[in-house]
Amino acid sequence: MSKTHRAANTLPDQQALSITDLSIQFGGLKAVEGLSFYVKEKEIFGLIGPNGAGKTTAFNCITQFYHPDRGEVLFRCKNGDVVDLVGHPVHEIIRLGLVRTFQNVEVIKELSLIDNVLIGAHTDFKATIFEQALRLPRARREEREMRAKAEQALDFLGIADLKDTLAGGQPYGVLKKVEIARTLMCNPKLIILDEPAAGLNDSETAELAETIRQVRDVYHCTILLVEHDMRLVMNICDRICAISFGQFLACGTPEEIQKDKLVQEAYLGEEEPE
Amino acid sequence: MKKESNTVQPSATPVRSAPGVLKNPYIRYILFGVVICLLPLLANSGIMPSSFVVNLGSVLIYSIVALGLNLLLGYSGLISLGTAGFMGLGAYISGYLTDSVGTPFIVALLVAVIIAAFIGVLVGFVSLRVAGIYLAIATLCVSEILRKTFEELDQFTNGFSGLTASYPKLFGVSLSREMTFVLLAVVLVLVMMLTHNLVNGQMGRALHAMRGSEVAAQAMGIYLLKYRLIVFAIATAYAALGGALYMHFVKFSYPSIWTMMLSLNILAVVVIGGLRSIYGTVIGALIVFAVPDLLLKRIPVIGKIDGIAYIFTGVLIILVVMFYPNGVVGLCNDIKKLFTRGKKKGGASDV
User: Fold this and answer.
1) Helix/strand/coil for A252
2) Which neighbouring-strand residues pair with A24?
3) What is B20-350's CATH number, 1.10.3470, 1.10.10, 3.20.20, 3.30.470?
4) In chain A, what residues touch B75 (CB-CB under 8 Å)?
5) B262-320 pLDDT, tens digit each
6) Which of B197, B213, B220, B232 to mutate to test the interface with A (most CBs of A within 10 A)?
7) Which of A194, A214, A260, B70 would you label with A2, given CA atoms 20 to 30 Å apart?
8) Do B75 and B276 meet the contact criterion of CB atoms below 8 Å apart?
9) Does B176 touch chain A (CB under 8 A)?
């Protein structure tokens, strides 16, 4: 499926990502069924749901780790084109401006923090393998520029002084920040955070909330949050989509979601009939 | 000159005491090469037997080959037991081309490396489908197929009787044994520099990411197939380069040299020397390929045991895996730390 063929898609101006009728089935299990929602530009959007609701599946469908059986994932790329992500190879997604983090931080223990962050700039290197092997001028210049950029990203997250230490043995909170710094390297339009608060304590979670806001404001990107931690979600999200058993429940502001009958039932169980 | 690489190597400590020039990794590689080139003088002056040069030359050759395997195993987390086959391929191609066709040495070397790299790419395709122990078996099969081919294709390889070659001719000058040794050192230093550049750049990080998690690597935009193919091509190219140099340094090649035993020994070099360490690989090659011949065989009683080299390597692998999982380099760094600590203490007492 060529990108040019897909470029004919359109999105309303203020939308960054729009998902329509997304469905995927594993064997007989309908993990996600007819899910639709959209994310506005520069918004912090939360995707929530009880365990097994299909949050991670939905978001693996967006990032093309899974290929949905049905549905459309329209995304406004870095260059302004709107493309349907479905069918794109996984490693191409980041080039379009969509980048993700992982629930159990995926950093390389044997590399320094800055080298871990530099992995995020992988697609921005233009020098060929030969140029790299011989350290020709272009390879050297790119390495220098990216390194400076990575230092900025680490500085932005307040861990610049740790840049040359190995990632192995760093506390979890630092590794989470490294992962966020890594996403910033590719000048993303949309960052998807997979349960960023998992494994963090209260003060770290509060700090994370502040960080996420700053990322949005400073790097001008949209953030899609897949999260379990209700305090974080209610605290920072502009809008939230709740799903349960792979199906859409409600979408709205945090207040609307908290009041929503279906969401309450999904989380707390149905009320006993009086 | 090139100012780069403040990358932290695993378990590497910054050399604080070294003067400014020595901080440049390239100058250190060159110095290292110069020291190696001076070693044959030991044999000439009678301190070491003259077979010492051959032993040491093989160590240099196996270092080149093991650097390729380290790229696979250490950086990318891919295992290969096919190293010997590709070495043999390089040896036969370059031996046949120089002695029977009359191709210049450099051209024969390049042809050997390119053909091997091409076959390496094919193996890379296989590596996308199979992983771990199955990849080891697949590469072992490729190696055995190559070895069988060496036996059967006797119009090219001279079959079991083996192929002989002469010392390399460079620019019309036939090199002596000592000069060939220097050539090996030069090639090794070049390969070390190339490897250093590759692993400390974008590609090295991509390989690290691939080893860490394929899923995360893909999310970072790393195309697995591309890097699998590249790393297999480089590893087999290094193996073939080593094989071709072997042909012109040891001057003969039999199919029975290129067996699984050799592949395992090169694997031992990487494990003992140090995963993801360039100097460690050379140290490993020295331990596995020189220590048994130069030292162990001179010890009375123990030296007489058949297969003492294998016993030595086996015991060493167990010890290294138990105590220094990152290889002997870890031990070297610990010793270095001990020394710097001692110095600091000494300095403090002076004050």
Assistant:
1) strand
2) A32
3) 1.10.3470
4) none
5) 999 999 999 999 999 999 999 999 999 988 888 887 777 777 777 888 888 999 999 99
6) B220
7) A194
8) yes
9) no
d(C-alpha A209, C-alpha A235), whole Å: 8
Counting every residue, how long is chain A? 274
- Residues of chain B with Cβ-Cβ distance to A100 below 8 Å are 219
The CATH number covering residue A113 comes to 3.40.50.300
pTM of the model: 0.89
Contact of B285 with B273, CB cutoff 8 Å: yes
Same structural domain for residues A78 and A207? Answer: yes
Contact B227, B203 (CB under 8 A): yes
> Bridge partners of A112?
A166
Examine the fold and report which residue of A186, A219, A237 is the final residue of a domain before the chain moves on: A186
Whether the CB of B218 is below 8 Å from some CB of chain A: the reply is yes
With CB atoms and an 8 Å threshold, state whether A122 touches B197. Answer: no
B chain contacts of residue A112, beta-carbon cutoff 8 Å:
7-8
Which residues form the domain of A126?
105-186
ipTM for the whole complex: 0.90
Do A272 and A213 share a domain, yes or no? yes
DSSP, residue by residue, A134-200: TT-HHHHHHHHHHHHHHHHHHHHTT-GGGTTSBSTT--HHHHHHHHHHHHHTT--SEEEEESTTTT-
CA nearest to B212 within chain A: A108
pLDDT of residue B342: 66
B121 touches chain A (CB under 8 A): no
Q: Which of B197, B209, B213 sits opposite A133 (nearest CB)?
A: B197
Decide if B246 contacts B87 (C-beta within 8 A).
Answer: yes
Same domain, A31 and A109: no
Q: Are residues A154 and A194 in the same domain?
A: no
